[in-house]
């Protein structure tokens, strides 16, 4: 059960009241999501602690240049991220936002996250705009080929990208005996992979497939940007933008905060780090809710979404616990 009812409040009462009062009156609401939303699901963020993958700055691997220089390494990084995202579960913040989208039809969520956790929390598709694509889309890297496959959850996508395992107990033959190695750790050796090991395009049969995410230096998906623009232009006013678990340093995504402010939106920031405010700073009408989004969102949205009901993942956890306990 992901209920916040018996928990002590995690936000100051006065801020909670003024925010909820405004939320009640708001119809045109935006949310800008970042990696901090999925932090309590166990997925690392990009900047600060956890931003290194082996010896590489995670953002340095997210470029077309890195892929052409070493597609094997970049695929190992993304295959690892696909694997970790599939093992992770949506947390109460994902469910709270999905619920808000069901309650307020004019609420639009702009997510920088590629981990698939908002879709898995059943966030309505039409009100979720994936600014940076998805780890589970794959497309051809050949300039002249337009192959795109959505929702590819094959893990590993090719055998060579399987996470290496260690035999924990050589006397045991059960599957439990092998343990996945953490290839984010530079001390764990990984093989050098070349063209022949990597996924190829089934359409042109020539190009390598690549993750369907937006890399630094690339354009955001045109249709996604058009949909957002249409929503913004539709009326003169925006009531509220929630800036959740993002350092708001990457553009054009971060620019939506100022776009919303220019249309009158009040800004609510939900972040662990008090210093992570958008470039335009804080206004006296803004809110800063400091702490874990997974704790804060169910509470501050509760006047609209009510208590979160039991979630499918939580139910699966409970079932597993029963099975394990009785086996
Ligand atoms: N709850 C709320 N906020 C959190 C939590 C948490 N549990 N844990 C971390 N944060 C905050 C951090 O304080 C930080 O401000 O989440 C933010 C994460 O920031 P980044 O790592 O910069 O991630 P993000 O803003 O999503 O990055 C934007 O950059 O590398 C690219 O394409 C990538 O989409 C990504 C983009």
From TrEMBL:
<feature type="binding site">
    <location>
        <position position="204"/>
    </location>
    <ligand>
        <name>Zn(2+)</name>
    </ligand>
</feature>
<dbReference type="InterPro" id="IPR050134">
    <property type="entry name" value="NAD-dep_sirtuin_deacylases"/>
</dbReference>
<dbReference type="InterPro" id="IPR003000">
    <property type="entry name" value="Sirtuin"/>
</dbReference>
<protein>
    <submittedName>
        <fullName>DHS-like NAD/FAD-binding domain-containing protein</fullName>
    </submittedName>
</protein>
<dbReference type="InterPro" id="IPR026590">
    <property type="entry name" value="Ssirtuin_cat_dom"/>
</dbReference>
<feature type="active site" description="Proton acceptor">
    <location>
        <position position="132"/>
    </location>
</feature>
<comment type="similarity">
    <text>Belongs to the sirtuin family. Class I subfamily.</text>
</comment>
<dbReference type="GO" id="GO:0017136">
    <property type="term" value="F:histone deacetylase activity, NAD-dependent"/>
</dbReference>
<keyword id="KW-0862">Zinc</keyword>
<keyword id="KW-0479">Metal-binding</keyword>
<dbReference type="InterPro" id="IPR027546">
    <property type="entry name" value="Sirtuin_class_III"/>
</dbReference>
<feature type="binding site">
    <location>
        <position position="201"/>
    </location>
    <ligand>
        <name>Zn(2+)</name>
    </ligand>
</feature>
<keyword id="KW-0808">Transferase</keyword>
<dbReference type="InterPro" id="IPR026591">
    <property type="entry name" value="Sirtuin_cat_small_dom_sf"/>
</dbReference>
<keyword id="KW-0520">NAD</keyword>
<feature type="binding site">
    <location>
        <position position="145"/>
    </location>
    <ligand>
        <name>Zn(2+)</name>
    </ligand>
</feature>
<dbReference type="GO" id="GO:0046872">
    <property type="term" value="F:metal ion binding"/>
</dbReference>
<dbReference type="GO" id="GO:0070403">
    <property type="term" value="F:NAD+ binding"/>
</dbReference>
<dbReference type="GO" id="GO:0036054">
    <property type="term" value="F:protein-malonyllysine demalonylase activity"/>
</dbReference>
<feature type="binding site">
    <location>
        <position position="140"/>
    </location>
    <ligand>
        <name>Zn(2+)</name>
    </ligand>
</feature>
<dbReference type="GO" id="GO:0036055">
    <property type="term" value="F:protein-succinyllysine desuccinylase activity"/>
</dbReference>
<dbReference type="Pfam" id="PF02146">
    <property type="entry name" value="SIR2"/>
</dbReference>
<feature type="domain" description="Deacetylase sirtuin-type">
    <location>
        <begin position="9"/>
        <end position="311"/>
    </location>
</feature>
<dbReference type="GO" id="GO:0005634">
    <property type="term" value="C:nucleus"/>
</dbReference>
<dbReference type="InterPro" id="IPR029035">
    <property type="entry name" value="DHS-like_NAD/FAD-binding_dom"/>
</dbReference>
């Amino acid at each position: 059960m992901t209920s916040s009812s018996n928990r002590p409040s995690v936000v100051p009462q006065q801020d909670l009241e003024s925010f909820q009062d405004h939320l009640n009156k708001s119809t045109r609401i935006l949310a800008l999501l970042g990696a901090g939303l999925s932090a309590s699901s166990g997925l690392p963020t990009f900047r600060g602690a956890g931003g290194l993958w082996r010896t590489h700055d995670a953002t340095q691997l997210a470029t077309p240049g890195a892929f052409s220089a070493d597609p094997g390494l970049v695929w190992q990084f993304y295959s690892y991220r696909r694997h970790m995202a599939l093992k992770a579960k949506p947390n109460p913040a994902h469910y709270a936002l999905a619920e808000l989208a069901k309650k307020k039809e004019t609420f639009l969520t702009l997510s920088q996250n590629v981990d698939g956790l908002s879709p898995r929390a059943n966030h309505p598709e039409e009100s979720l705009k994936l600014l940076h694509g998805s780890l589970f889309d794959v497309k051809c890297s050949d300039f002249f080929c337009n192959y795109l496959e959505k929702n590819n959850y094959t893990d590993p996508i090719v055998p060579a990208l399987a996470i290496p395992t260690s035999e924990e107990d050589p006397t045991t033959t059960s599957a439990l005996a092998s343990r996945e190695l953490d290839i984010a750790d530079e001390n764990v050796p990984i093989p050098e992979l070349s063209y022949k090991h990597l996924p190829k395009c089934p359409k042109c049969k020539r190009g390598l497939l690549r993750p369907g995410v937006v890399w630094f230096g690339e354009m955001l998906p045109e249709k996604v940007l058009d949909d957002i623009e249409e929503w913004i232009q539709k009326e003169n006013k925006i009531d509220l933008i929630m800036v959740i678990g993002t350092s708001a340093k990457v553009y054009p995504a971060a620019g939506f905060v100022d776009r919303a402010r220019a249309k009158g939106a009040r800004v609510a920031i939900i972040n662990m780090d008090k210093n992570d405010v958008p470039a335009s700073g804080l206004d006296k009408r803004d809110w800063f809710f400091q702490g874990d989004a997974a704790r804060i969102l169910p509470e501050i949205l509760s006047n609209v979404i009510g208590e979160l009901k039991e979630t499918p993942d939580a139910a699966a956890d409970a079932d597993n616990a029963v099975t394990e306990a009785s086996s």
